[in-house]
Amino acid sequence: TAVYRAGVVGRRPRVPVDAAALQAAASRTMSRRARAYVDGGAGEGATMRHNREAFDRWRVVPRVLHATTHRDLSRRVLATDLAAPLLLAPVGAGALVRPDSDLLIARGAAATGTPYVFSSQGCNPMEDTAAEMGTTPFWYQLYWSTHEPLVDSMIGRAEALGAQALVVTLDTTVLGWRPQDLSLGSLPFARGEGIAQYTSDPAFLALLRERVAAAQGPAEKVDVTLAAVRSLVSMTRRFPGRFVDNLRSPEPRAAVETFLGTYSNPALSWDHLATLRHRTSLPVVLKGVLHPDDAERALEAGIDAIVVSNHGGRQVDRSVASLDALVAIRDRVGPDPTVLLDSGVRTGADVFVALALGADACLLGRPHLYGLALAGAEGVAEVVENVVAELDLTMGLVGAATLDDIGRGLLVEGR
Ligand code: FNR
User: Fold this and answer.
1) Would the CB of 50 count as within 6 Å of ligand 1?
2) Where is the FMN hydroxy acid dehydrogenase domain (predicted)?
3) Does ipTM surpass 0.85 in this model?
4) SS3 of the chain
5) pTM exceeds 0.80
6) What is the pLDDT, as a whole number, of residue 127?
């Protein structure tokens, strides 16, 4: 209603309200590298299409005369109170879209009271991003490093900052086959985008120091190296165009290479996850679960929640749609476990459908980056406001006063 009122008094939107127009406008403003990275998907893009087709198959069957003047969109998920069933998905290397991407996304998230899941591959140290969140909760997303001290260090930093959950992303033990990025020949991370979490980490810097020392010998050189690495992030920020020149010096390149060799672990297994019990006190969320067997096993292993996700179709092409996987997983695990969904969520009506099919909340991915591309923190906030406003109106129009009123009975599958 507030969004409509604003329109009545003549406030012009900063970003297109329509989801397709939002993407189109954002894509036009992004650099070729940013567009390839953000809009691109794995392989031929079939998974991305499946995500949208799955939403299109479901139809809402509104109820009438349900007295829904007052609607409550709030819900508690794990230890986090959500004003609306929405979080901002973790996104790495956002500096391709705008410098200081994480700070701006956090500012937009905080302006709307929407929790943000900080990425391991964020473009600002998590300490700085957390400062932007104010009192709005945030979660931390971990890519499990091959270097175990780094896993503990990242978790420790997130805990110290007050993150309310630890999200372990499982679908990116290696990067997927992404033709758009590969065709450009200049991959994300090549210029140090998305490594700020690492270059601000003592365990990473210690490892880097060892590696550089082993490669170069003299100890004096190492301090110079560390200074160079520490400035890497700010250089990316201040001189985005010229940053490639800075990479000619070997030290930042060593940082990028060390990052590439350690950020994720292809050998990740259930045994690694079992160690989390004594490594963190935070609720643990597994992101990237699609198979009901895996969902069941995760919950048996004491995991607190899962995010049904195919990483926005960026990892395995020809994957099952995330929404279809949600239905299968909910059928298997029953109504109680906390199950979130992302991949393909674009509108408030999409969130409604996901909730009706059993999601407790959704993560919004690419759309918030589109808001960032077009209008910075304000763009992020406006995209979120629009999604929540449409969900609110949909609830009012179909007779759902609370999120618990949204159920399978309000949907039919289309033919
Ligand atoms: C992502 N995603 C992601 N996920 C994660 O766990 N850690 C990360 O660092 C990133 N990085 C990232 C960068 C970009 C540019 C995109 C678009 C996505 C995946 C993200 O959290 C989410 O799962 C998807 O974005 C959901 O798909 P849609 O709705 O954006 O299509």
Assistant:
1) no
2) 11-415
3) yes
4) CHHHHHHHCCCCCCCCCCHHHHHHHHHHHCCHHHHHHHHCCCCCCHHHHHHHHHHHHEEECCCCCCCCCCCECCEEECCEEECCCEEECCCCCHHHCCCCHHHHHHHHHHHHCCCEEECCCCCCCHHHHHHHHCCCCEEEEECCCCCHHHHHHHHHHHHHHCCCCEEEECCCCCCCCCHHHHHHCCCCCCCCCCCHHHHCCHHHHHHHHHHHHHHHCCCHHHHHHHHHHHCHHHHHHHCCCCHHHHCCCHHHHHHHHHHHHHCCCCCCCHHHHHHHHHCCCCCEEEEEECCHHHHHHHHHCCCCEEEECCHHHCCCCCCCCHHHHHHHHHHHHCCCCEEEECCCCCCHHHHHHHHHCCCCEEEECHHHHHHHHHHHHHHHHHHHHHHHHHHHHHHHHHCCCEHHHCCHHHEEECC
5) yes
6) 98
